[in-house]
UniProtKB/TrEMBL annotation:
Residues 1-21 are annotated as: Disordered. Pfam families: DUF6493 (PF20103), DUF7824 (PF25148). Residues 291-407 form the DUF6493 domain. Residues 614-698 form the DUF7824 domain. It comes from Actinorugispora endophytica. InterPro entries: DUF6493, DUF7824. This is Secreted protein.
Length: 981
């Protein structure tokens, strides 16, 4: 490199590098020391350097520099003053320890003159990770902090994503040293801005920097959530004992004197304690840090006990902590967050007087807070009541709040509290009975019975004055308990006549939005798709959460604008694809809608390594990729075909873009599209045309549309005509798969999966389709289902939903192990689709209704209600599939009880009873101790009563006839009695 001392300047030419810098670079001696040398000392140093030559030790760091770094140093030697140049040299040497002194000697102008060179070095070292480079980057971080003269610029520099992670304790200490001589107000501004920019990206070193800048400047303590959490995370650990202290605005030695302080001493004397403690009850994420496990191993107790100890000493205000903890429990939060504040209350050990003074707050915790919080408040209030310190109106308020909650544990505890209150004081019997009647409408039938028993027990002491109110409340009881209620209350209880199911109204599909009007709109929507796509490293796939209708509009928009104005589209896409949202979003394996980036890459003409290609692979070209599932293979081929279209002369639009949001195409619209292709001489893509045929709603084709289709002259027109004349793709005819040796190892017990699944012979389409659709139409052997990547599946065959359900069967059968992102969430979309709802779809419903995951159960209930409202539900078939899935352990009674109770609540009692009546023999044949089985019988009894079902179920009658008083037997007897009328 020219100018670093290895070549001599030509005779008579001006030396572009300052002699001091040249000697420093040659010898490795710091520039600041060379400036102090006398002329004789410099001569000696130069002689030593000449004797060592190129292989001298002083050359080591020069040889380690990147070419870009050498260029920066050469330019700095020409343009900077010697003092400023010394800063660049120290950075190149990685000598961060020399920088505070070098920076302090610079004028403001000299500091600013260094900045362009420092920023160039940041870019040059961005992708370099060697150990020596780390040293230079740390020095670069210190130098930039010292050379920037604006507070905002300093904050931006020290939080720079390429440098901030290098700020270990020594580096942060040197940054603090270069900032320590600045004006107080300026230091406070830096502290505030660093805190604001940090968000959640805090560690003890950044905390140290901001902490000491606040103390140096005397500015207010940052109120940022990140600062508060960082302060809590680090104050209990001993690292803060090594931090320099601040005395009278000057950095001094650590106050610990090199010894480790106790946690209580450290926190007690912390200058930020009084400012931070009120914020503990305002920012999120404090709760987990309050729990005892969040402390160093050598510390017996954590924050809860430390704060309580400081209250006992009088260092903190006990009343403020009590009120703050209770107020925080009133606000929404995750159970793990709120648990810490409950433990803080336990550590503070509030007295009976302190809790009695906060009765109103405790009552406010009962209706809506998570169960552990409400349960804690309930226990405290119950103790106050037993001590005679709770008014009757407060007992009534507490009962009204709790008895409407769904958690049976809380409700049972409240009924027990009412029972004890009435036993202690017989004058409260009427109050307790009326309060307990609030539970008559509870969803748990066992709770209703318990409340009725309480009323029966205390009614004699309550007197006749409460009977009218109790009779009115008894109308909310389940029908199977109203007879007993009439006996207890001595009067008729209103009963409901059987009613047909009244289901919620469902809306049909909407027309698709118009295609994007401009290239900029296309680019924006492409970027939104990529932003909604993440790479799942565990499963080796890209997961897209974008709606299929949005994807179809974008794909069509890319083709339309590539046809109209390719240059304008390229310009719009180039601006969009340079954003960070593309980074790491798309993976190499099973296809997702995020793979639209491959089409974008073709439009941009990129080769491997471009900003789009860098984070993805060409479709199907990665040998390590697993073969995509059949419906994802369709997406792969569509994208590959569209990519060819946009580089080889794009057609005016795609044929397969849906006209309705459920994926269907109006026949008249497809006829017009093919007619326009014929008019302009465009040739449709084979996959695009095949996909359009599978989407066209042949059932909606009128005679005039068919007549226009017969006028089409192209091959595409003739194929469409044949398709419409045949009524589209035939419905699949399913049979239960035969038993095979293939087993699902998750189930154990040697249960073959095939006995639960369906298969069909390959469907024969009315005309030829692209080869990729062959695996879609042949579902004899269901294929592997990739997790998550199913969003577009209903759009592949939107008029034959049973065919899509066939491909989803592996997701159905593994529902016990599925998460909320599984293919089960497609059930509502299939219910809203077209075509027959056959055994495969009903199998999916059955498995979803009995799933462990609440999100999957909700999707199954929604699908059941939609199917029932549209007349597509076969309750008897659903019952048979429930029985089959139960035999193979796919359905859990607890999950099924939750689902069918919800479905019945929304008006599907008749369908629920019909399905359960067919499934009960299989359910009762399982382990009688299975959790949720009594709840299933309870829902069955209520549904049977509501729909007026009659006729015994042999298995239920046999169970009801057994001796015993378990809840299972009680619910069986209720169901038997309901069926006997």
């Amino acid at each position: 490199m020219s100018g670093l001392g290895t070549e001599q300047p030509e005779e008579g030419a001006a030396d572009p590098v300052h002699p001091d810098l040249r000697l420093a670079l040659r010898t490795g001696v710091p520039l600041g020391r060379i400036r102090e040398f006398s002329g004789e000392e410099r001569s000696v140093l130069e002689g030593v350097e000449r004797r060592h030559g190129r292989e001298g030790v002083s050359k080591r760091w020069i040889r380690a520099l990147l070419p870009e770094e050498r260029e920066v140093l050469e330019a700095a030697g020409r343009e900077l003053s010697p003092a400023a140049n010394g800063v660049l040299t120290a950075v190149a040497e990685g000598a961060a320890d020399r920088l505070p002194g070098l920076v302090a000697a610079l004028s403001e102008k000299e500091r600013r003159s260094c900045l362009p060179f420092l920023k160039t070095l940041v870019a040059a070292l961005r992708d370099q990770w060697q150990g020596e480079v780390h040293r230079r980057k740390k020095a670069l971080l210190v130098a930039g902090a010292g050379c920037h003269t604006g507070a905002a610029a300093v904050a931006q520099w020290v939080t720079h994503r390429d440098l901030a992670w290098l700020a270990d304790f020594p580096t942060s200490a040197r940054i603090l040293e270069v900032l320590a001589a600045r004006p107080k107000e300026w230091q406070g501004d830096v502290a505030r801005r660093v805190a604001a920019r940090s968000g959640a990206e805090w560690d003890e070193n950044r905390l140290f920097l901001v902490d000491r800048l606040v103390l140096l400047s005397g500015c207010p303590v940052p109120a940022d959530e990140g600062f508060v959490l960082a302060w809590m995370r680090n104050r209990l650990w001993g690292a803060s004992d090594d931090w320099p202290d601040v005395v009278d605005g000057v950095l001094t030695a650590p106050r610990s004197g090199g010894r480790r302080l106790g946690a209580l001493d450290r926190v007690r004397d912390d200058p930020f304690l009084d400012a931070v403690v009120p914020r503990l009850f305002e920012v999120g994420g404090v709760g987990p840090l309050l729990q005892d496990r969040n402390h160093p191993p050598n510390l017996q107790n954590g924050w809860n006990h430390l704060l309580a100890a400081l209250c006992r000493e009088g260092r903190l205000d006990r009343e403020a902590l009590l009120d703050g903890a209770l107020a925080r429990l009133l606000r929404p939060g995750r159970p793990g967050d709120l648990r810490g504040f409950r433990k803080l209350l336990d550590a503070l050990e509030p007295t009976e007087d302190e809790y009695a003074a906060r009765t109103v707050t405790l009552l406010r915790l009962l209706p809506d807070t998570p169960s552990p919080v409400a349960g804690h408040a309930q226990k405290v209030l119950a103790r106050l009541d037993e001590a005679g310190r709770l008014e009757d109106e407060h007992l009534v308020d507490a009962s009204a709040s709790v008895l409407f909650r769904t958690e049976a544990t809380l409700v049972r505890a409240q009924l027990s509290w009412l029972d004890r209150a009435a036993r202690r004081d017989r004058s409260r019997a009427g109050l307790a009975a009326l309060a307990a009647a609030d539970a008559f409408g509870h969803g748990d039938l066992a709770v209703q019975e318990r409340a009725l028993n309480l009323v029966a027990r205390h009614l004699p002491a309550a007197g006749d004055a409460v009977r009218p109110g109790l009779v009115a409340a008894a109308a909310a009881l389940t029908p199977v308990l109203r007879g007993r209620a009439a006996e207890v209350l001595g009067g008729a209880v209103a009963d409901d006549d059987p009613e047909p199911d009244v289901l919620p109204a469902v809306s049909g599909p909407r027309p698709m939005e118009a295609p994007p009007a401009t290239a900029v709109e296309v680019a924006e929507e492409v970027n939104a798709i990529i932003a909604a796509t993440r790479f799942n490293w565990a499963d080796g796939i890209a997961v897209s959460t974008v709606e299929a209708s949005v994807f179809e509009r974008v794909l069509d928009g890319l083709v339309r604008h590539a046809h109209r104005d390719r240059d304008g589209l390229v310009h719009a896409l180039e601006a969009t694809t340079r954003t960070d949202s593309w980074i790491g979003r798309v993976g190499p394996s099973d296809r997702s809608m995020g793979d639209v980036c491959h089409v974008v890459a073709e439009i941009l003409g990129e080769e491997h390594g471009g900003p789009v290609w860098r984070f993805s692979h060409r479709i199907g070209e990665n040998p390590a990729s697993r073969a995509p599932s059949p419906l994802n293979a369709v997406l792969q081929e569509r994208l590959r075909e569209v990519a060819r279209m946009v580089v080889g002369g794009a057609p005016p639009f795609l044929l397969a873009t849906p006209t309705l949001t459920d994926g269907r195409i109006d026949p008249a619209a497809l006829v017009e599209r093919i007619a326009e292709y014929e008019r302009v001489g465009a040739v449709p893509g084979e996959v695009d045309l095949s996909q359009a045929l599978l989407r066209v709603d042949a059932a909606a084709c009128g005679g005039d549309v068919l007549a226009r289709a017969r006028e089409l002259a192209s091959d595409a027109g003739r194929r469409l005509t044949a398709w419409l004349e045949a009524g589209g793709l035939p419905e699949p005819k399913l049979v239960r798969a035969a038993e095979t040796a293939e087993e699902n190892p998750r189930w154990g017990g040697g249960r073959p999966t095939k006995l639960l699944l369906f298969a069909n012979e390959r469907l024969v389409p009315p005309c030829a389709l692209a080869e990729v659709f062959a695996r879609v139409l042949d579902s004899e052997r269901p294929s592997r289902i990739p997790p998550d990547n199913h969003g577009h599946w209903p759009f592949v065959v939107p008029v034959r939903r049973e065919l899509v359900a066939l491909h989803l069967q592996p997701a159905f059968t593994e529902v016990s192990y599925a998460d909320p992102g599984s293919g089960m969430l497609l059930l509502p979309a299939l219910a809203e689709g077209s075509g027959a709802a056959g055994p495969a779809l009903h199998l999916g419903l059955a498995c979803g209704l009995g799933a462990r995951d609440a999100g999957i159960r909700t999707a199954a209930v929604d699908a059941l209600l939609v199917l029932a409202a549209r007349g597509g539900l076969d309750p008897a078939l659903l019952g048979r599939e429930l029985a089959e899935a139960t035999r193979y352990g796919v359905v859990t009674p607890r999950g099924l009880a939750e689902s069918v109770r919800e479905a019945a609540r929304f008006g599907a009692s008749g369908a629920v009873w019909t399905a359960l009546s067919a499934a009960l023999p299989a359910l009762l044949d399982r382990d009688e101790k299975a959790k949720g089985l009594p709840d299933v019988l309870a829902v069955a009894a209520e549904s049977a009563h509501r729909c007026g079902a009659r006729g015994p179920v042999a298995e239920v009658s046999a169970l009801a006839a057994r001796k015993g008083s378990t809840r299972l037997l009680k619910e069986a007897r209720r169901l038997r009695d309901a069926l006997e009328g």
